[in-house]
Structure formats: structure tokens, C-alpha cells
Amino acid sequence: MPSPPRPSAWNRSGFPGRPPRGDEPLPAAEEREAALAQALAITHRMLNHCREASWDPLPALAEARHDLLLRAFDGRPAPHQAERFAAAIARLQDLDRQILDHCQRQKEDWGRALHRIARGRRASDAYLRESL
Could you tell me if residue 68 is inside a domain? Predict the structure, then answer.
């Protein structure tokens, strides 16, 4: 199964930009929530495009998950948290894989899969915060 385009291609097509760097002011909570909602909507379109093109959606979803979690944490984790952040990301990506596999077995729409993932986003953020 071919791989989806690199994230830079999604950025050109409207995927939200990078998270703020450490020296930039943090966006207000409402702006972060709006950016997260926009990223979820674009991820939905991306998953549907992957399905139509017969691409494996997991690499694209992993990129989206990483971006969403960085946004939820207002940017990059501290250097001393990097290893635990990576382990938490891997765990969450495993959960994403399980959700997508379940949806494929049940012949559910990618939108429903994304909805299941989005529903767990707050729990995922809490899990990641606890992991760090």
C-alpha cells in the first residue's frame, strides 16, 4: 500500500502550521481550541483522501496526532521530557491503530474513526501530561 504525501504537502493544502516556538507568545485558550478543531477537521479530510487513494492512513494520522499533541502542550516538550514524550506518542499511536483496525473490521467510515479518536483527545492529552 503506498504511503500518503509528506506533511509538507498537507501544510500547503491547509493543514494548520507549526506549533509556537519557545520564544513566541502562546495563543489564548480559545485560539488553541479553534486550531485543534481545525486540525481535526483537516485530519478527517486527510483520512478520507487516504481511503480513496488506497493509502495506509496511519503515517498521516501519526503526523496529525503529533501536531495535535504539540498544540495541546503549547509547543515542544522540555528536553528532559523528550524520551517520555516519545514513549507517550508511541502509546497513543498504538491506540489510534487499534481504533482504525476496529473501524475497518466494522466497516465504519473514517469520519467515525476520527470521531472516536477525537473523543479520546482530552483523555489522551491528560495521559500525556501524566506521562511527562
Answer: yes
Residues 6+ away with beta carbon under 8 Å from 112: 103
Among 15-19, 89-93, 128-132, where is mean pLDDT lowest? 15-19
DSSP per residue over 38-106, as a string? HHHHHHHHHHHHHHHTT--HHHHHHHHHHHHHHHHTTSPPPGGGHHHHHHHHHHHHHHHHHHHHHHHHT
Domain that holds residue 124: 26-131
pTM score? 0.40
Q: Which whole number is the average pLDDT over 70-84?
A: 64
